[in-house]
Specification:
Blueprint: H1 7-45, H2 52-60, H3 69-86, H4 88-95, H5 99-123
Helix pairs in contact: 1-2, 1-3
Length: 124
Amino acid sequence: LSHGMSREEFEEYQRQLVEEKIQRDKDFATRKAERANLRVQLRDKYRLPESAQDDATIQMAGGDVYLPEELAKMVEEDEEEEEAQNTLLGKIQNLDLDFDSIKSKAQSTLSEAKQAAEEKCAIM
């Protein structure tokens, strides 16, 4: 037979090749489903339309596909960051206001209005 192997050795070798291929295909399908799951999570987060292809990929992998921990953490951190920015305090912190310039503008506007009122009163 092939390369000096006995029939049993050759059959064992063929069986191992098939098992390895099945395992590689299974691993590939799992990784593909994990990526599809990540896309589903991101679509949900950003309120984008669903993808039937991603749903089908996840179904083909058996449905219980989990996001790898690092990716799940990234999505979660993004959501927490957004929630923090959406709170009133977060909005105030992101405003980056220069209160001194606002105060001086308000004072100058007030003094201009006062001066204009005094001039009108002086004319009358």
